[in-house]
């Protein structure tokens, strides 16, 4: 960025010192505007998230209301009138006559909720253990890091499947469908905390030897207060980048578990459940039941992943 450009932005900030103007003139926003990938990814992510949040207002039908379903509308092709009822559906219907477009909107709500909640759980566990390992050190650090190393030897999806199986084994049969989403969140969260812990530990090892931490010790600050109020705010930048990328991985993990039949139940179908249902009708000619949920999942995961990659580069001080 040229000195002339910086000078112009500084002059604008002086004339209009509002917080919004300062934010819009920041390097972060400048880089964002000049990155087509970041802009397009953000737009796609916002459209999909808002569509899921406002699904009851956008969806033409409530696919999970049995009173609104008509089995005669089953297997209706996209944008073609049904041979029996004459009804037309944008993306067709499934075997039960449910509008595929509506099921996708409602399915995204489950996928996004599970993914976001799982990443939040992984962040809480990983940040807590990473701070303890980096600041306390000793046998605490050894124990936490060895557990993390052992977990890294197994694919996260297998760890999630193991946790899901164990949790369902202890859950009464009559409550399994009701607890399925919570079990999914816990399983994915417990399988993804390691990367947060390792990054936070490394950053904490650097921060704890700096002058402001030593000053906090001298004035009598307790270790918990030092970790939470002084070290934590300075190690959050890489954590936020990892969280964005982990969100895409968590959504894919949820879809994988649901596709394998150990995730969201049919009464609360996610995108993975819809793909599993559509896969059973793919070779009989009803391709739309599988295609549209799969394309939605691909667009959501790819956009979040690309946005996370851009954040990693934008927040990397070595690339500034």
From TrEMBL:
Signal peptide stretch: none
Any coiled-coil regions, as ranges: none
Domain ABC transmembrane type-1 as annotated: residue spans: 108-308
SUPFAM superfamilies from the UniProt entry: MetI-like
Membrane topology annotation: Multi-pass membrane protein
TM regions (residue ranges): 37-59, 110-135, 147-167, 179-200, 231-253, 287-308
Compartments where found: Cell membrane
Cellular component, GO annotation: plasma membrane
Domain of life from the UniProt record: Bacteria
Classification via InterPro entries: BP-dependent_transpt_permease, MetI-like, MetI-like_sf, OppC_N
Keywords: Cell membrane, Membrane, Transmembrane, Transmembrane helix, Transport
Swiss-Prot/TrEMBL GO biological process terms: transmembrane transport
Family: Belongs to the binding-protein-dependent transport system permease family.
Protein name: Peptide/nickel transport system permease protein
Organism: Litoreibacter ponti
């Amino acid at each position: 960025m040229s000195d002339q450009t910086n000078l112009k932005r500084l002059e604008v900030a002086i004339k209009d010192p509002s917080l919004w103007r300062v934010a819009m003139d920041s390097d972060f926003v400048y880089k964002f505007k000049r990155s087509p990938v970041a802009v397009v990814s953000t737009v796609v992510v916002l459209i999909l998230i808002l569509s899921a949040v406002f699904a009851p207002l956008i969806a033409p039908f409530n696919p999970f209301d049995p009173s609104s379903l008509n089995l005669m509308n089953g297997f209706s092709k996209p944008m073609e009138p049904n041979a029996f009822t004459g009804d037309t559906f944008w993306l067709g219907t499934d075997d039960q006559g449910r509008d595929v477009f509506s099921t996708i909107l409602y399915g995204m709500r489950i996928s996004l909720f599970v993914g976001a909640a799982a990443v939040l759980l992984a962040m809480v566990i990983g940040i807590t253990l990473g701070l303890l390992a980096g600041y306390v050190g000793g046998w605490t650090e050894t124990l936490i890091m060895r557990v993390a190393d052992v977990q890294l030897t197994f694919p996260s999806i297998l760890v999630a499947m193991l946790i899901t199986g164990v949790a369902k084994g202890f859950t009464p049969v009559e409550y399994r469908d009701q607890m399925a989403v919570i079990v999914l969140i816990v399983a994915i969260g417990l399988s993804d905390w390691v990367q947060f812990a390792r990054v936070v530990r490394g950053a904490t090892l650097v921060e704890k030897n700096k002058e402001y931490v030593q000053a906090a010790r001298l004035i009598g600050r307790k270790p918990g207060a030092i970790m939470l109020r002084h070290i934590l705010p300075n190690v959050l930048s890489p954590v936020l980048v990892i969280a964005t990328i982990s969100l895409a991985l968590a959504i894919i993990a949820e879809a994988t578990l649901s596709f394998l039949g150990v995730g969201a139940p049919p009464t609360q179908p996610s995108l993975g459940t819809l793909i599993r249902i559509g896969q059973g009708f793919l070779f009989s000619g009803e391709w739309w039941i599988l295609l549209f949920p799969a394309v939605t999942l691909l667009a959501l995961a790819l956009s979040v992943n690309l946005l996370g990659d851009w954040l990693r580069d934008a927040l990397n001080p070595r690339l500034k």
